[in-house]
Records
---
Amino acid sequence: MPPCFCYFNPQCPSISRFISDQPLLSLLETSCRTIRDLRKIHAQMIKTGLVRDTVAISRVLSFCATGPEQDLGYALSLFYRIERKNEFIWNTVIRGFCGSCDPHVAVMLFVEMLERGEVEPGRLTYPSVFRAYSQLGAATDGGQLHGRIVKLGLEFDPFIRNSVIHMYANCGSVTDAKKLFDEDEDNDVVAWNAVIMGLAKTGDVEKSWRLFCKLPEKNEVSWNTMVSSFVRNGRWNEALDLFIEMQVQGMKPSEFTLVSTLNACAKLGALEQGEWIHDYIGKMGLPLNVFLVTALIDMYSRCGKIEMARFVFDTAPCLSLSCWNSMVFGLATNGLEDEAFKLFLELQSSCFEPDDVSFIAVLTACSHSGRVNEARHYFKMMKEGYGIDPTIQHYGCMVDVLSKVGLLEEAMELISNMDVRPDAAIWGSLLSACIRYQNTELAELIAQNLVSSGQDDKSTHILLSNCYAASGCFEKAVEERKKMKIKQVVKQIGCSAIEVNGEIHEFVAGGK
């Protein structure tokens, strides 16, 4: 077999001719769809000796390392059996691992490549390694590699430079990303998007928005990034407004943006907007994966249309544990506690095992219905049956249900024996119950705990004053209000939102 010397570029004409002249390689390019198919072709290549050709084996490696039917274990085993590894082969296996759940393997392979010294890393090697560092959140190690890039004179290569900016931005080192970004006046849209994303991830959504507005040529990634940035930072209205503008500009939302926008609809109770997105998913023929299913269930549940949430759940082509959890929680918060208990029982019989979120959902059903015995049962099951340690949210549900039925002493005992430090929400729940049951003694003890732990806020004084008033201790209630005045404690203004003709309108108490 004649040797081929152009394997550094797998798309060059001579390689294309070589592949077309080899029936097995032609089969690999045109008919191979699964790893099972690949194994059959690989076996035939071993029999014919074609496996010893660098170009031929690189095609097999490329399929299992970066193809749609990725099998990185097979790829790594194959990689170490290749005697003459060229740059393309090293790049292929590194690229395969950099975006996987084991990005550290990509770094290890890069280090091995340097140690062997048989092949020098090229300009297509470094972006994959920077992506691995980005996945790992290893800005310091990525910075060391950046130094190597500068020494090699590759810092102005746009492909490498963008990957460095993205690494810094994704790792939270926005200052370094912005510094590198500002050094070049001709940044492409990839660099702009990376910095916009990085600023939003650190919570500086205002700078992120200003940079987005300055971006001369926005692409779909730019719009998707900014919409998701608003959602990530709790700017629900801005997210929906920008999503609408995105449609006007003819930009296609990504799956991640659709999920983010559905979350914004859920937070705002924007049912019409959520329904429009649901219809859009259907019209565009987008597959309903588990992320979209979960987001739709959550949106319909939070907007009070629980029957549609159940319809999405029952007709979904595939379900994940998050779908089950969202549906149980939706039933629990919409007054359908019995159905929530029934669905949780079905979850236990399914192929999924309940996790900590599942128990928060079912304990929420107990809390909303005031079912103490069931709450005790599930709390015990979580620890003893599934080995899940209670978090502050689980304890919060237990304290809430105990407080609602007047078991204040038991709730206090539970708080005292918690494995985690009680937060202001747990104390507030018990303090609110003290008002209902006129237990001023316990209310004073809770207030002391909040003050001593530095968790007292305006609600502590308001609730304690209300407790005194409810118990007829008006002088103490007035005294507590005086303390609030001295400390300049002002009650937070209530806020609500409604949707009219697809537009969100917010109102505050006392507003005009």
---
Amino acid sequence: SVSEAKQTNLIVNYLPIDMMENELLHIFWKIGEVVNHKIVRDRRSGRSLGYGFVKYKDASAARLAQTVCNGHEIRGKFLKVAFARPRSDDIVNTN
């Protein structure tokens, strides 16, 4: 498995349903250079599913963001920030 020391992609759970991508970016960009960010949405309705991803340019920023932003309160919700597992297509043929 990829060690957390090298990971740059974070999964962010418990996002307020009305949060937009620019607000998600605003929380995380202060810590380091964000290369990608998205809120996962229902394909038909466009409604937020309450979680998203933030990818940093470097792993040190991702580690700091995981520590600093985990538990961050926004509109009565507490964000849960963790390192994202690789997508299944990234882990094919690993054994």
